[in-house]
Design brief:
- This protein is of the alpha+beta class.
- Among the domains are: about 80 residues, no CATH class; about 80 residues, Sandwich (Immunoglobulin-like), CATH 2.60.40; about 100 residues, Cytochrome Bc1 Complex, Chain D, domain 2, CATH 1.10.760.10.
- About 20% of the residues lie in helices and about 30% in strands.
- The protein has 14 helices and 46 strands.
- The strands form 13 sheets. The protein has a 5-stranded mixed sheet with strand order 4-11-10-6-7, with no helix packed on it. Strands 24, 25, 26, 27 and 28 form a 5-stranded antiparallel sheet that branches.
- Helix 11 crosses helix 14.
Length: about 700
């Protein structure tokens, strides 16, 4: 609609249409694209009928002025528009996908200073790949099909350098190449509080430290690599080392090393008494070992059919308890008069895994912390019902049960995520990481609550008549009004990660925190319905950085957008903060994949060739072992043909530690994925592999 002739007081109406539509859009309370389009079309119709010869310049100028005055309102609409249209975070999706399109790739693009790590490199036709990490030049081992891998250990190869964004140099057949990475330094996390002598001891796996506190000064003792468990037996402190393997024996007085013990398998937990030490071990042969004597020697072994989780040993050595996360079982062994240990009864099965346990020999009881106990082990998010359960150790039956949740006018205001337990002759102390509380429970009576002196309390101990509280997330120990903080690392990124971890634990108005389902920042191995209509197993959050979009249906484009889930499904937080989403995202990005990896031996190397032969790499493309794509549910699961849902391709990093498998958890083992639940061969042509190749395939998957 253009003016013809010399009329200068009018201008073309087509320049007014977008301005007018934007003004109408900003004036209305619905900041979505459909409203702007309707405003544009409506205004176009009006102009067609009423202003065939253009728009007077005065009217156009006035309209421009009004639009300028409405700029703050327009800006408000533009800020919320991406979220309302489902576009927020799409830049992260595109960025992560673009990062997998390069010719030379290294994954993960995260380097930590506290643990051994395995990196995969793709370099087409390369004969020799050298990766420079920690000041060392590491020659990558070829696996075939342009894939190489390198194992990096900060203790042997040197620290990775300054914290934050960095470049790792690759040398490919003599040609240098730099790839971007994020370097994360660990912060202290005091865990496993144990009283010995005049002080309470804790371990920090991230910083390889034994921490001793007597209520005044803090003693910091360097120890072996990855101390994940601590116990006292007799006059010894015993540390279980995750990455270095085995046990360290230390003096309770000053933490001095007095000896080491090699054990076969991964140390998961320790429990000690005056005369015995119980060790929970995962690996090829999961089991519980019982050690005693001077020197310590193994006396008994209790084989398990799956990895152990929490462990308890009564002070009089009469009862041994172990929980198993995958099956939500609690097994109890009781010592009879002849000194032999026998299973007390059929293991107890709960609807959620045991989050914490404590044994009280005088009461002949143990108390467990659970995130709920639905009869069938499934349910919606409302099946999260944090509770304490007391078990009679003479009969193996439940003696008492109490829900810890405290309902307020605007939702759950207390009792969220019980994570610390301490048994006394009078009852049980419990700490809550999701609502910053402490409570005392005497079975048959209500909880006696009080605020915690530190945020996100977990560890509990009794020293000099005072309750000692430990907070791994803040790096603090507190007792009797005194609080000591283990100094964090010097990096500027550390404080942001610490705040993100605090927010990760924080409970919402619905009474859930991230930790409620992602137990120990992993998976609770339970089924939940978070809005898709059917219960599905919780995904591990280890190693999820740079694998956008997120959740099984790829419904969240970025880690920060998961904050929308906390608000839209879980009712939001009692105190809102603008930086929470970004801080939690930074914390999750810094976690890294599961790190207790078996060596890539000959079987695993052959397994990668079988992986490619079966076509698995088509979707689980190296080096990230995902193509970050989504596929119709019916393409992967024939019985869901026609279902509108798209399923996200997960990364296979740490797949050996993330059972159960498939979107609905139908496969308990990796073997079951192919042998029982893949009739259409959607997970690769497993049928064309021979017996030897199949065994090699599983060895490779477990080494990822």
């Amino acid at each position: 609609m253009v003016i013809e002739g010399p009329e200068a007081s009018r201008i073309s109406a087509r320049w007014i249409l977008p301005l007018g539509a934007t003004l109408i859009w900003a004036a209305l309370p619905w900041p979505i694209l459909a409203v702007w389009v309707l405003a544009y079309l409506g205004l176009w119709g009006v102009l067609q009928v009423t202003l065939r010869e253009g728009v007077p310049r005065r009217i156009a100028g006035l309209l421009v002025l009004v639009v300028l005055l409405m700029t703050p309102r327009i800006w408000d609409h533009l800020r919320v528009l991406p979220e309302l249209e489902g576009l927020s975070g799409l830049s992260q999706v595109w960025s992560d996908r673009r990062a997998l399109e390069g010719e030379v790739l290294l994954r993960p693009r995260l380097v930590r200073d506290d643990r051994p790590q395995r990196f995969f490199v793709t370099a087409p036709s390369a004969q020799r790949v050298v990766v420079q990490l920690g000041g060392s030049e590491l020659t990558a081992e070829p696996l075939g099909h342009d894939l190489h891998y390198v194992d990096y250990d900060p203790r042997r190869h040197g620290a990775p350098g300054a914290e934050g964004a960095a470049q790792v140099q690759l040398t490919i057949d003599g040609r240098p190449r730099e790839v971007p990475v994020q370097v994360v330094w660990a912060t202290p996390h005091p865990r496993s509080l144990v009283v010995a002598g005049d002080r309470v001891w804790a371990v920090s796996a991230e910083t390889d430290q034994l921490l001793g506190w007597s209520g005044s000064g803090l003693e910091v003792v360097p120890v072996g690599d990855g101390p994940v468990a601590l116990a006292r037996t007799g006059d010894r402190l015993v540390l279980g080392l995750r990455y270095q393997g085995g046990l360290e024996l230390r003096r309770p007085k000053d933490g001095t090393l007095t000896g080491t013990i090699a054990v076969s398998g991964e140390v998961v937990a320790l429990a000690g008494s005056a005369s015995q030490l119980a060790i929970a071990l995962a690996g090829t042969h999961p089991r519980i070992e019982l050690w005693s004597g001077t020197p310590l020697e193994q006396k008994l072994e209790f084989p398990l059919d799956e990895p152990p989780d929490r462990l308890g040993l009564s002070e009089d050595d009469r009862w041994i308890l172990v929980s198993q996360r995958r099956s939500h079982l609690l097994s109890i062994w009781s010592r009879s008069d002849d000194g032999a240990y026998r299973p007390l009864r059929t293991p107890l099965r709960f609807g959620r895994p045991v989050a914490a346990l404590a044994v009280q020999a005088e009461r002949g009881a143990a108390v467990l912390a659970l995130a709920g106990d639905p009869p069938d082990g499934t349910g919606t998010n409302h099946a999260i019902d944090d509770q304490l359960v007391e078990i009679d150790l003479h009969t193996g039956l439940i003696r008492a049960r109490i829900s810890t949740r405290l309902e307020g006018e605007d939702g759950v205001e207390g009792g969220v995520a019980p994570r610390g337990l301490l048994a006394t002759a009078e009852g049980y102390w419990v700490s809550f990481s999701g609502s910053d509380e402490l409570a005392f429970w005497r079975p048959g009576q209500p909880l006696a609550r009080r605020p915690s002196p530190v945020l996100r309390p977990i560890g509990l101990a009794w020293l000099h008549g005072e309750l000692v509280i430990g907070s791994p997330a803040t790096g603090q120990l507190a007792a009797g009004g005194r609080v000591v903080t283990v100094p964090p690392g010097p990096g500027p990124f550390g404080q942001r990660l610490r705040q993100g971890e605090l927010d990760y634990y924080e409970g919402t108005r619905a009474g859930l925190s991230c930790e409620s389902c992602h137990l120990d920042r992993d998976s609770d191995q339970a089924l939940h319905d978070i809005g898709h209509g059917t219960p599905r197993p919780t995904l591990s959050i280890l190693g999820i950085a740079q694998t956008a979009p997120y959740l099984r249906g790829a419904s969240y484009p970025s880690l920060a957008s998961l904050d929308d889930f906390a608000h839209g499904v879980l009712g939001g937080y009692r105190v809102e903060r603008a930086d929470r989403a970004a801080n939690v995202a930074a914390f999750l990005e810094g976690l890294g994949p599961e790190v207790q990896l078996p060596p890539l031996g000959e079987a695993a190397r052959a397994g990668f060739l079988a992986f490619v032969k079966a076509g698995c790499a088509a979707c689980h493309r190296p080096p990230a072992f995902t193509d970050l794509a989504q596929y119709p549910a019916g393409m992967i699961f024939p019985e869901r043909t026609g279902a509108p849902e798209l399923l996200d391709t997960p990364s296979l990093r740490s797949v050996g530690a993330t059972s159960p498998y498939l979107y609905d958890g139908r496969a308990v083992t990796l073997e079951s994925v192919f042998e029982d639940h893949d009739p259409g061969r959607a997970h690769g042509d497993y049928a064309q592999l021979d017996v030897k190749e199949r065994a090699a395939l599983f060895a490779f998957l477990r080494a990822l």
